[in-house]
Amino acid sequence: MVSAPRGATDVLVVGAGAAGLACARDLLAEGVGVRVLEASDAPGGRMRSDRVDGFVVDRGFQVFNTSYPQVRRRLTLRDLRLRPFTPGVLIHTGSGRLRFTDPTRRPGTLPDLLPGRLAGPRDLAALGVLSARDALLPPRLLKRSPDTTTRTALAAAGVSDALVERFFRPFLSGVFLEDELETSGRVFHLVWRSMLRGTLCLPMEGIGAVPRALAAALPAGTVRLEAPVERLTEDGVLTADGEDVPARAVVVATGPATVAALLPDVELPAYRVVTTYYHVAPRSPAGEPTLLVDTRRRFLNTCVLSDVARAFAPPGHALVATSVLGEDTRGREREVRAALDEAYDTGTGSWDLLTVRTVQDALPAMPPPQPLSRTTRVAPGRYVCGDHRATGSVQGALASGARAAREVLHDLGR
User: Fold this and answer.
1) What is the 8-class DSSP label of residue 56?
2) Partner residues linked to 88 by β-bridges
3) DSSP assignment string, 355-414
4) Quick one: 311 exposed, middle or buried, by C-beta within 10 A (0-12, 13-18, 19+)?
5) Confidence of residue 1 (pLDDT cuts 50, 70, 90)
6) pTM over 0.90
């Protein structure tokens, strides 16, 4: 644990999400006085988990990637009690179900990649070269490559339109929360690399265990909950209850709405909206911890969370999470349920809708050319960090928080 320095606060961090907690930890490690003000009743920002009638419900479907460098630097992974997904996906098509699995991890699934099933010989060769390149090249070379859209990057790698439509488009729609493959190709290559080198998991207690672990590494009293900030002042911030909190520097590490309110001159990207439906079934319709995607793109992805982590559902029940782009509009749950009936090849009429979670700022849009890191400096003594300043991921948020700490330390002469 980092020791808190004595004396007045040097830096105020507004927001106890991943970026703000990383920034606070790095500043404390250098002996800087830090306080974190969080508007809600727990740390995490979008990375929150709730208990609903005995079920663990994340605020939107989220996964945890073990390969992210910032994650490995800051967290003891075994303490999160991670439970892995299958290293691959199931693909629901109009003519049946296909399986795409990494044969280097599951050699028994190699027949699923035989020519004529998922793809032809040329596509399999192109996929092999693409994957080897992204997995083995140093990240700095991937970051320096010319930027295009993901669709263009796949075409340049020799991947046919048929394989794009059968696999990459439905799968990556759930990763980037857009279904036109217009996300930066550089971001795609880095994300593909992370999937090849890491394992997609869920903490046993939900994704909220990640920010809780980050916050637990800070000295007691560093994070103050239920302390929304109304505005920045010349000397620090003014909280919503009228308290003036002075500081030499203020780092805003919140969601886009609060960033826009506190720092109106900061340019923010558009954000993707996603809705997740949580259904309770009497038994698992899948029987395995695997993501299922749909070539007709009626949903982004679906999975049985209780197959991944048993603690997500009480005994005798299964928890199914299904995500779609956009809002929860009238009649949409009924359409999703009908698609799940077909995709899982089982009746969904007995399923109960547990809850619905719509996340307005789920992921920043990342069209090319996409800067992979941006300065956090806004004005003298004013900084901003978050996934919108880097790649839209936990890695990006943590790296942005780390950059904010470095820039604050430089400007304070530390």
Assistant:
1) E
2) 101
3) EEEEEEEEEE--PSS--SB---EEETTEEE-SGGGBSSSHHHHHHHHHHHHHHHHHHTT-
4) middle
5) very low
6) yes
